[in-house]
# Entry
Amino acid sequence: MNFELLAQLTITGIVLGSFYALMGMSFGIVYQTSKIFHLANAIPFAAAGFAAVWSAETFHLPMFGAFIVGLVAAVIVGLLILVLGYFPLINRNATLLSLFLVSLGVTVAFPNLLQIVFGTQNKTLQVYGADGTLNRAFETQVYNVGFLTITQLDIVKIIVCWLVVLCVVLFVNKTRFGRSITALRTNPTMAAAVGINSKVVYIVVFAIGSLIAGMGGLFVTTEFVAYPTMALQWTLIGFIAVFFGGIGSLPGTALGGLLLGLLSSWSSVWLGVQFAPVVVFGALFIILLVRPQGLFGKAAA
Amino acid sequence: MDGTSVNSSDGNLLEVNDVTAGYSKRRVITGVSMNVKPGEIVGVLGHNGAGKTTLLKCIFRMLSIESGDIVFDGASITKSSSVKTVASGMSFTPSERPIFRDLTVEQNLELGAHSVRDRQAIKDRMGEVMELFPILGERRTQLAGRFSGGQQRQLSVGMALMVQPKLMMLDEPSLGISPTVVTKTFATIRELAAEKGMSVLIVEQNVKAMTTIADRVYVLRHGEMVLEESGDAARERSEWWHLF
# Structure
């Protein structure tokens, strides 16, 4: 493999890995705090994309206005799943398996609901121009730097993803509320003993997780299209990043996501891009064999 | 605090009246009644599985009760929550993992004062705790998980003190620490109760340690309260096993 190809694959891997890191943060903050295998994190992802497309066309919103509607929709559906789906079971001391089954159920049902409401066609994010016609909201620029190629959207993606990672890590590690999240994650009994309201913490982490999932949905919708089953693959990537990077470590999750992106990109030279999911799951399998707590996770005490 | 204010008979700080509770359909405590007076140290003794921890969790409102009533500081807390009981002046220290291992001493103490909003009060109380347990001051920036069992127990008591509780509840504070440290810990609890006028409710299997400091003792057997006697009577008792 020549240097130019390696460098280009590394750039592609960083872009992909940054997005994996974003998805990892979304799933990770919810899973690590609540231990709920929140597969339904796919729903805010898709909801953001569809809400942005719908609001831009219906209310003639500019792109950023549609993004805000998409993010608000993501947070609302995320919280609805928590309040209407999980809380009633948590109040009855239901097992985590029961919560997962609820999550699985709504994850399967939601794409069907989207198809009923919006139809089966792929949805492109379009905004009204000055001339009153609908045009694709974002046409990305392609930059050639020497022998490297990167798009404007890729640069935005890298910056936004790592800014989100930084904000979440700082929020959890440096704020008083973040310490409540750590407390609940590491010792729920003691968290209750010091008067931490677990439901309030859950609401905040689900809002954050759904907001980040919504950002993911907006990236995919802006770059490609929105479609009812658009979220599942990225949600699964998020959960792989959590277990690969390290349970209990949000920076570990982000770095795990980045590494998975790089591995996925580098391996495409020998295996072809169609094998990327195999590489990602293979890497997780190996890590679970040799280091069950994940690359940067701490072994249970 | 939730509920209607009620007049507490005999000036009790805590009254547990005919409480029945358990997990799902399994009853663990049945018709338990007891009380704690202001400034008093009360011990609840019992064998493993007698329902001691369940009783504390009911009082702290971490576990819902099937029937009965709990009154704290003159108001019913039967329908309250642990978040509100902490704010109303009650602390609870579990028997196992009574600290946050991944956080520093300072962070643990700050979390102990989670319900306190006044930053200066938190700082002042942290200073008092570190004066009481100097080792915590010396190792304030170290992770609590690296501490010995005795030091972790000191930190857990310090965390409870951060809310300046009217009632401090300790679940088996002698668990996992050496007899010498048990003696020291119980002596500290005795001093704190006397100095701050704080009530203490301790559940224990360690009869010897418990009876050295208790003003009054209850014995719980198979979920029912079978004995209540003064600390003096308990200390004079030579035989316990038939009660368990």
